[in-house]
Amino acid sequence: MPDLGRLEKIDVRSEWADEARDFTPWLAEENLDLLEDTIGIDLELEATEKPVGPFNADILCKDTVEDQWVLIENQLKRTDHKHLGQLLTYASGLGAVTIVWVSDRFNDQHRSALDWLNDITDEGINFFGLEIELWQIEDSPPAPKFNVVSKPNDWSNRVSDAAEDEELTEFDEAQLDFWTEFAEYLNENNSTISPRKPQSQHWMYFAVGDSRAHLSARVNTQDELIGVDLALKEKAEPLFHLLKREKEQIEAEVGLELNWNRQPDKTWCIIRHWWEQENPLRRRNWPGEFQLLSDALTSFYDTFSPRLSNLDADDWSPPSSENTRTNSEEELAERERR
């Protein structure tokens, strides 16, 4: 007879002793794909502990397809009225249209409350209730599992219909194939970089271990380029300047000359490297491109992740207006002398 193990449910607190310090970073920085698979929404992390008035929302994401805010509130114990109130307060303050409440156990009253909210709100507002569980076979690593206890009306049909309605062009299919096979390449080569769900677009995002930034691999067919970048999206300008203080050391560690792109009129700053690549979506070019992108992503992660974790945006301050004015006057005088 086959020798089978016994599946055992274990206490979530055995792995995540502290919700804010342990569970929220685990979910936000490395495991959003588990949540994506559960609710059928493609997510991009925007922030953790996002300020909303005097309070902080646990996780704020962007629905990358609909370009809408997704709020995630965590509670590693039985649901209570306090967290239900926080959920609605945060959603209102952030303008979130999808609200996800993750808990160890849902009370019937709170599950009914989410069902009622889904009934009375229009189709554009979505409430999910998810129970997080941990399961283990003997001494194996614990495996997380999300159970959906509440979801929007006809959500499964809406997700299925949306997938069927999406018609891909030949170019879209080529992009999707490229990222699908790149994700397989990363997995087969045991990369430390975890791929996200492939999409028919010219980029793929990757976590860098800090909610203020993410990594990207990109394919630019118009200019025939492939590239890797670090995008700073929260406290972008101070983080950019703090990192640039180590420009030479960073480029030496990455092994590439980088383009440091500060965009003062935008909220993002980009640190990037491009390679010229004739017809990057031609399949015969993919093995070499995959190796370039994989190696660069690993170098970017190894170089930037520890630095970001030790950076405090408050350690940088912009030049004073007086210094800026004085410098401008000196530059003007110099031009006049010429």
UniProtKB/TrEMBL annotation:
Residues 329-338 have a biased composition (Acidic residues). InterPro entries: DUF4268, tRNA_endonuc-like_dom_sf. This is DUF4268 domain-containing protein. Residues 312-338 are annotated as: Disordered. Signal peptide: none annotated. The lineage of its organism: Bacteria, Pseudomonadati, Rhodothermota, Rhodothermia, Rhodothermales. Pfam families: DUF4268. GO terms for molecular function: nucleic acid binding. It comes from the Bacteria. Residues 175-307 form the DUF4268 domain.
